[in-house]
Write a structure and sequence with these properties.
It is a single chain. By secondary structure, this protein is α+β, with helices and mostly antiparallel strands. The protein has three domains: about 100 residues, Beta-Lactamase; about 80 residues, Orthogonal Bundle (Helix Hairpins); about 90 residues, 2-Layer Sandwich (Heat Shock Protein 90). It is about 50% helix and about 20% strand. Strand 4 and strand 5 form a beta hairpin. Helix 5 packs antiparallel against helix 6 and helix 7 runs parallel beside helix 8.
């Protein structure tokens, strides 16, 4: 009946340690030699599992677990269940149990767990992306609001005031904030190109010293408008192979951050003597007045 039902049977004699396994049990556990059938083989040679199973049967409590078995037919999953038989004095006499091949059910469970894990991971990534996009939109809105407001305000002032000095100031303010917006748009475009893997680099000889000096002059008005002093000292020629537009963007971003996060003081751009391999490096240092 057990063979017809696909169930293997086994029995352990506690006194002798001998274990008897049916043919189906040996098939389930990939045991070719009946003499090699052991309690440890049944429990998968897991010390913790063996100890827990002995505690269970000694307390007259059935135990059950699933065991992965590797054999000639590949990896199979077997359900093993056992229970103790006691003497009249309450001591353990024997342990009997059965085995059942549950490979189909286990593989279905593993596939379901994998799908659930993939769906959970996808959902977490989508939620993280949504949060990132929300933060990105908020940051872009915040960063662009100031130059846009300045351009609109100065533009409206031009319609109301005809004073040449005011017109000149308004024009300079509009140009300065327009350049700032242009840098922001360029940053967004470059960020999108990096994220999509379509970032292109045009390598050519570039004088980093001359490039830094040009960017400093473009950014000087923005620094002075905030009451900061922008100094460029010790800038020497240094030709290297680079992308001119990308390097301009790097130096411009460094100076933009320096101006943005410096409330008062001086911003320095100059030669960095700390690097042995790179004779010139654009950097900024801030000094705050008391």
């Amino acid at each position: 009946m057990l063979e017809f039902a696909g169930v293997g049977a086994w029995q352990l004699d506690v006194a002798t340690g001998a274990i008897a396994c049916s043919e189906r049990c040996r098939t389930d556990l990939a045991i070719a030699d009946p003499a090699s059938c052991s309690f440890e083989r049944l429990l998968g040679n897991d010390a913790e599992r063996i100890a827990a199973s002995w505690r269970a049967v000694s307390a007259d409590v059935p135990f059950e677990f699933e065991l992965g078995v590797s054999g000639a037919n590949g990896r199979r999953w077997v359900l093993i269940r056992g229970t103790g038989r006691l003497h009249e004095n309450g001591t353990l006499r024997s342990v009997i149990g059965f085995t059942l091949d549950i490979t189909a059910r286990k593989e279905h469970e593993l596939e379901a767990d994998a799908r659930a894990g993939a769906e959970r991971t996808g959902r977490e990534r989508s939620e993280a992306l949504a949060r990132t996009m929300g933060q990105f939109v908020a940051a872009v809105s915040h960063e662009t609001r100031s130059p846009l407001n300045a351009i609109v305000s100065w533009g409206e002032l031009l319609h109301l005031v005809a004073d040449p000095s005011v017109v000149a100031s308004a024009g300079e303010a509009i140009r300065r904030n327009g350049r700032q917006l242009t840098h922001m748009v360029d940053d967004l475009i470059h960020s999108g190109a990096v994220a999509s893997g379509k970032m292109s680099v045009n390598l050519q000889p570039v004088d980093l010293g001359a490039l830094a000096a040009i960017v400093v002059e473009h950014m000087r008005k923005a620094a002075e408008h905030k009451g900061l002093e922008l100094r460029a000292t010790g800038i020497a020629p240094c030709t290297t192979l680079a992308d001119d537009s990308r390097m301009r963007q790097v130096v411009s971003n460094l100076l933009t951050n320096a101006i943005k996060f410096t409330d008062a003081g001086t911003i320095y751009v100059g030669r960095c003597h700390r690097s042995r391999h790179h004779p010139y490096r654009a950097r900024h240092r801030t000094r705050h007045r008391a």
